[in-house]
Amino acid sequence: MYRYDEFDRTMVLDRVEQFRGQIARRMAGELSEEQFRPLRLQNGLYLQLHAYMLRVAIPYGQLNSRQMRKLAHIARTYDKGYGHFTTRQNIQYNWPKLSQVADILAELASVEMHAIQTSGNCIRNVTADQYAGVTADEVEDPRIYAEIIRQWSTFHPEFSFLPRKFKIAVSGAVGADRAAVRFHDIGLFIVRNDAGEVGFEVWVGGGLGRTPMIGKKIRDFVAKADLLAYLEAILRVYNLLGRRDNMFKARIKILVHETGTEEFTRLVEKEFGDTQGGELELPAEEIQRIAAYFAPPAYEALSDEPPALTARRFEDREFNDWVRVNVARHKAPGYAIANISLKPVGLPPGDVTADQMDAVADLAERFSMDGIRVTHEQNLVLPDVRQDRLYDLWQGLRAIGLADANLDHIGDIICCPGLDYCSLANARSIPVAERISQRFADLSRQYDIGELRLKISGCINACGHHHVGHIGILGVDRKDQEYYQITLGGAPGEDAAIGAKVGAAFPATEIVDAVETVVNTYLAIRMPGERFIDTYRRVGDAPFKESLYDKAA
Amino acid sequence: MVQQVVTGNRLSDGLVIFLGEDGGWTPKIDLARVAGTEDEAGLLEDLAKAAEKARLVVAPYLIEVTEDAGTLKPVRYRERLRAYGPSVHPEFGRSDVPDHFRMGVEAAGEVDMAGVAG
């Protein structure tokens, strides 16, 4: 993985000390809350409903065991013993004390981590496909370019005060999109053109929130050397023309929408005429230098499906289910990508205790060449596991309560913190997720239902990605009561779609029943082999509306 | 006349606090000083502004409360969550939660968001 050089190290340490001073001035009364707020946000520190919240960046979702142990140590020492993995490959601590935040940041810096640009109107943590570098269906490893973008965007003086926050995602996969790339301000797919050169397909103006939009493709191919020059051109157009008069219309998706894709593209290309070939040109040697950090480890010469694995799968049905559902194909024969679901039945999605973090670090060291990934679906991945060690890994995960075999099923719910923590939320989301996962706790029922992406947000800002859930749930406040709207038909990936509201919202006491009604309706009308989303696309929302709202039916 | 108390987040750790009977700030809503008239509410606001200046509290504001079984209960559910929540992770939760705010996982997957729901 990438290692800090002296510039990175100095920059991060300087920032810790700068913020330490700002905190001291705030505590001493030299800074008002109004003056302090933008400073703390630039360091990832929010003031939420019950406490401060610190959002720590995990660039492109990659961690090693030393970093994971540090995250555990922070949870144990400075928080209440747990952390929350988010939909942006970050981790959030819900209970840090202001007086200790600089110490936390110094601890993070000691393992090359930070909270810089995890808030504020700047370019946020760059996210990537969690299977980067280990999946067979990949043109090139997106982490290389995510790291290059991270270096370019960190403290970029021109883009420190954008009209609004700005999120970039990169994927190198062909056909599959595991990073919701089309729902980012800029989404990049690494592609190969007809001449056999590798470059980037560029999507702009995607996003969720108040006005969900699928991004628009504005370029089929940007050469590697031009990557930063092209990104700079997009950001420049946005920085100049993006709206600053209305926060709700300030994201680039609104600019692209209001300007029109064609005209927006023309403006970017015009700007690119100025930036191309200048100081932002990426020399091949620099790309090579960064790529070396992500060079594949020395895989042993192994075969797929070793007898040890086959025998265990035959003997142990639960293990077999876990392999079938949570384990993905690796590019190297005899290896596997193991997903760790952070969605145990009846518990908050994405939450991990300090002890679990330590245990996952140990397992990564023993079984995954020290590597861990964090996914935007609030799960973890051990990317480099020998297939003949999967059984031992699974037993290790069972021992810490993280062996739920529910990946991409109804129990694998994405869920924002909601009104249990978040000062922006209108309703709680975690209790709804907990109760849905309890209602569908039976795994054989989940497998019968098949792939089903259920996503819950506690407000219209859509941190829980409800718009792209096959079933989406949005918490709303109706006359000081928690109500929940259901959307159907969204999809985050290669078949990107925005879900449509199915009808009137349900009170808290009825939302789990309503979800079950939707699922049962699908089960009753699905054709053989159809997933929930396939059935929905075939029949539309009429049968679901009828079963939800037509009491006579 | 509605009853009001003043609340905010403590500067040092962000915890939810209420302006108390004794002029100090307390995490326990039952110890909060209650204003029954506009004048009293205005006084609470003045005291809160002074506490904000003294760097004890961030962004204090008035909330409406009712008396329920001998305890003060915020009228709005958002404020009930602030006063007693979060409603998840009972193992990390508070011990001074009144009966009308029941937390935790309800039996058999039944959705019961009591306490907050009403």
Helix and strand arrangement:
The complex is a heterodimer of chains A (553) and B (118).
Chain A: H1 6-27, H2 33-41, E1 45-47, E2 52-57, E3 62-64, H3 65-78, E4 82-85, E5 90-93, H4 101-109, E6 127-128, H5 142-153, E7 168-171, E8 186-192, E9 198-204, E10 216-223, H6 227-241, H7 252-259, H8 261-275, H9 284-293, H10 307-315, H11 317-326, E11 327-329, E12 335-340, E13 351-353, H12 354-367, E14 371-374, E15 380-386, H13 390-399, E16 414-415, H14 430-439, H15 443-449, E17 454-457, E18 471-478, E19 481-488, E20 500-501, E21 506-507, H16 511-525, H17 532-539, H18 542-549
Parallel strand pairs in A: 6-7, 7-8, 16-17, 17-18
Antiparallel strand pairs in A: 1-2, 2-5, 3-14, 4-5, 4-13, 8-9, 9-10, 11-12, 12-15, 14-15, 18-19, 19-20, 19-21
Chain B: E1 3-10, E2 16-19, E3 25-26, H1 38-53, E4 57-68, E5 71-74, H2 77-84
Antiparallel strand pairs in B: 1-2, 1-4, 2-3, 4-5
Please provide a written account of the structure:
- The complex is a heterodimer of chains A (553) and B (118).
- With 553 residues, chain A is α+β, with helices and mostly antiparallel strands.
- Chain A contains 18 helices and 21 strands.
- Chain A has helices at residues 6-27, 33-41, 65-78, 101-109, 142-153, 227-241, 252-259, 261-275, 284-293, 307-315, 317-326, 354-367, 390-399, 430-439, 443-449, 511-525, 532-539, 542-549; strands spanning 45-47, 52-57, 62-64, 82-85, 90-93, 127-128, 168-171, 186-192, 198-204, 216-223, 327-329, 335-340, 351-353, 371-374, 380-386, 414-415, 454-457, 471-478, 481-488, 500-501, 506-507.
- In chain A, strands 16, 17, 18, 19, 20 and 21 form a six-stranded mixed β-sheet that branches. In chain A, strands 1-2-5-4-13 form a five-stranded antiparallel β-sheet. In chain A, strands 3-14-15-12-11 form a five-stranded antiparallel β-sheet.
- In chain A, β14 (371-374) and β15 form a beta hairpin.
- In chain A, α1 runs antiparallel to α4 and α7 (252-259) crosses α8.
- The radius of gyration of chain A is 23 Å and the shape is globular.
- Chain B has a domain at 3-75.
- Chain B contains two helices and five strands.
- The A-B interface holds A 26-29, 33, 47-52, 80-82, 95, 97-99, 346, 348, 351, 419-421, 428, 430-432, 434-435, 438-439, 441, 477, 480-482, 507-513 and B 9, 11-16, 52-53, 55, 58-59, 75-78, 81-82, 85-89, 92, 105-106, 109-113, 116-118.
